[in-house]
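Appendix B, example 12.
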Amino acid sequence: MRWRLFALAACLLAIAGCAGRPGPDALVPTSATAEGAREHVILVASTRERDPRPGVFFNGERTPALNFAKVDISVPPAHKPGEIEWPKNGLGNPATDMVVREAVYRDTDQQFIQDLKAEIARRPAGQRKIFIFVHGYNTMFSEALYRLAQMAQDSDAPGIPLLFTWASRATTEGYVYDNNSATAARDGLEETIRLAFGSGAEEVSILAHSMGNWVTVEALRQIRISGRGLPPSKIGNIILAAPDIDVDVFKSQLKRFGKPDKPFVVIVSRDDKALGFSDFIAGKKERLGQYSNDAELVELGAVVVDMTDVKALDSFNHGKFAQLAEIAPQLRGAIARATGGAGGAPVQDRVDLDGVRISGLERLRAQSRALDGAKPQPAVATQ
């Protein structure tokens, strides 16, 4: 069994090596500009250790307290949806690569809140939203940062991108270390979520990927049982993408958590090779991101987004979630029509779009009506 595990890990390492990874200077800031490039301000909360090397910024070791940062990233004009144009050969070229324009640490949560409020103030009413991204296992800080920039660019959403990055050593053999790091980061993520909700934002959404789902669901569970819950009117979408969670564990988490006020969005793909590896080392216990019983997940309180039939841009079939950003406007429209939210169309429980199958929309519709009914009605002017 030990040799089989080693052989499988070596195989996955070989596949990952073919895909390539950013170098140690991927985050070296550049003052160069390019016509047509678009800049994104990304705020960072992290349980990683600061790294003095200018192209690294945060490494894979843990810290007991949260670290904060603010990073300006430029996306090239010829950016391809779903992909990351890594800086190459030292300083990147903003005409062809994603590059860092400026990166600064923030020493206190008060400074972090000031950054959040400044970004909120730049946006008009109705667009003052925060989008938290929690990355997965085997992820460098630079990989998580540029992935969030890619999604912000492709979705063209007005929300403030906020990266919560926990201490991953970014190696296949570091699975157990990463899992323990994710567990240790629960309090840090809870603190980050509370800071986001306390910033004055109109809405806060969370997207977690792979092992990042473990720390996310645990943090949300902590918040629910703490007695100091989050305001339902400000909860956006809670998206669990390719979740690396044992299905039985997820069921026990939701049993303690209760059905969420707003359904979790669970993104699954049954051809996910990375989750197959996780399944193997977990004693052949199925992972949530490969679960085949959509109806049961809907009953537990989820909207299921099945991407099995979507061709992945990565050889693991593990990063399909990032491809949703490109078709986000079409998906929002299709969901609105399916739930009767546009044009008075009849309510449907399922919608299919470009190989993406979404189930559980009827409950989303019911929840939306419940929230609308709970909102205070505007006062009627009288003479």
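The chain is about 35% helix and 20% strand. The two ends are 81 Å apart (CA to CA).
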